[in-house]
Amino acid sequence: MRKLMLALAMLTAAACTTTSRVEPPAAGASSGPRPALDAFLSAVRTQDLQAMSLAWGDKEGPIRDNKRLARDEVERRELIMMCYFRHDRYRVISEQQAAGGERMLEVELSKGTLSRTTNFFVVNAGDRWYVRNAEMEPVKDLCKR
User: Fold this and answer.
1) Rounded to the nearest 5°, which phi and psi values hold at 90?
2) What is the pLDDT of residue 95?
3) 92: closest CA among 54, 119, 56?
């Protein structure tokens, strides 16, 4: 009888146990300015051209779907941006409204002991946000290191 009660208790506990699973966002998904910046800078840090071409774009969508630039031109520009925005760590200092409904994020990029601050411009393309542009001049010495 005792074994039967123990078995029933175990079955009852198993039946009442629920599990939940948190699904990660789809690759490249960016539901706001900050996630778009995070995806872009993560791609820069890991030197992932494919991920970068999903995070970089404009109101029309990601740069990889843009027919205005040839694929080799997109990759050339991505390699240049990877050099300029190379970092060990970054920190968003501020976020504010910019022209045309864009958001401007002031970001500190650090490589080793060197830190520089620049602005990233993020745009909404309906269901996603993309990094449209960033100022390279303030971080040019990160590329030299």
Assistant:
1) -145, 165
2) 96
3) 119
Q: Which carries the bigger pLDDT value, residue 17 or residue 71?
A: 71
Number of domains into which the chain is organized = 1
Range of the domain at 34: 28-144
Per-residue pLDDT tens over the stretch 11-55: 444 444 333 233 334 444 557 999 999 999 999 999 999 999 999
* Closest to 58 (Cα-Cα) out of 48, 50, 66, 70: 66
The amino acid present at 94, given as its one-letter code, is: S
How far is 78 from 60, CA to CA, in rounded Å?
18
pTM score of the predicted model: 0.77
Residue 117 to residue 109: CA distance in whole angstroms = 6
Q: What is the domain-level CATH number for residue 132?
A: 3.10.450.50
